[in-house]
């Protein structure tokens, strides 16, 4: 018995190590080629060709960029605080990589040594781990800006820390309705809840995108702000702060900040997929409905080819969300800083709090009526979310939250009416317009 237990422990540690190495390697490769994908997508949007000369179709461009960054000369500013200056890029890349440890990316794989779940660490605290580790990223931004010894970097670090802390609140609150609906914080359990099972515990037979439509919108916007990308790239703001908190970085230290940013984008896209797009669930097919209960009982028939198919489904969904991130970056101008903070504290925080209360009351009413989990349960919530989305988009935000700056009226005839009439109610102003007005 002792020898069998030792053998089981050996294979458990071996398989865990293989999964860690495989996930980290694949994530780094995907990050490298995401830079190429973003440059090609941006070129398509701007009617250009993009990278196409290094290798066939430019496929070797990320490798050439990596070699260039490795052999470039490292610089150390004279005013920099060396230990923290070197530590900041590590703290920027670390959270996004270790967050993938709790993301399930495929159905369980049967092996001669037992059933292997396609997740590095199925922790019981689930999304609480995600919120805790995700908040560490603010330290890399703030530390890099402060330790650089530059006023531009310091301003970028202060902006970044304020922005990430502000939108972490809305990010966490947007997941509360998900927990109310799923009743569990484990990521594999949340994926299983979005599938249809002919046997076993009841599920909702619907991706949570539909019964929690408004919640998914809040989560996506908060995640977009957490990645510091357009239209939320105020910590970098090339027109104002050069490149913000990483102005003084070069070579691989600068690349580590970029790797951390792209890895964060992929991680947020994967979380959107797991929480709201069914994870690795393949739509309109029940053959992939495989569930491992807490006592080890397996529902469904796991096979290697189902693992491959579900892994492909998860990759496609995550890729589409990443493309949406890229699309938003290259089509929307940047917010002003006051608009950014107003959106986080004066609109999203209040809106998501009201949303939690409404969803909690609706779930209580549905369960009070005796409607079981399933399609009708999700349909009622979907109708409620459609109504809330209409109120959110067409009734509340009419230029009162995200509004342009008022141009001061001048001249002898200037008065309150003139000043009010000069106020822009556009959604955003470009950085160039801000510079001209200032």
Can you offer a commentary on this structure?
The chain has 438 residues and is an all-alpha fold. The chain has two domains: 2-397, no CATH class; 399-407 and 415-438, no CATH class. Helix content is 61%, strand content 2%. It has 16 helices and four strands. A hairpin with a 2-residue loop joins strand 1 (109-111) and strand 2. It is globular. The chain starts with a helix and ends with a helix.
Key attributes of the depicted protein:
globular, 438 residues, disordered C terminus, disordered N terminus, 2 domains, two-stranded antiparallel ribbon, 16 helices, mainly alpha, 61% helix
Main sheet specs: 2 strands, antiparallel
On the 0 to 100 scale, the average pLDDT is 81
Category from helices, strands and their pairing? mainly alpha
- Return the string of H and E elements: HHHEEHHHHHHHHEEHHHHH
- How are the strands of the biggest sheet laid out side by side? 1-2
**How many β-strand runs?**
4
Q: What is the tally of helical segments?
A: 16
Kindly state the percentage of residues in helix.
Answer: 55-70%
Give the low-confidence spans: 1-7, 415-438
Describe the global form. Answer: globular
The number of distinct structural domains comes to: 2
- The value of Rg in angstroms is 24 Å
Portion in beta strands: under 5%
Q: Any chance you could write out the topology, listing elements then pairs?
A:
Blueprint: H1 2-45, H2 61-71, H3 82-98, E1 109-111, E2 114-116, H4 127-134, H5 137-147, H6 151-174, H7 176-182, H8 187-193, H9 213-226, H10 238-241, H11 251-276, E3 291-292, E4 298-299, H12 304-329, H13 337-368, H14 375-396, H15 416-421, H16 431-437
Antiparallel strand pairs: 1-2, 3-4
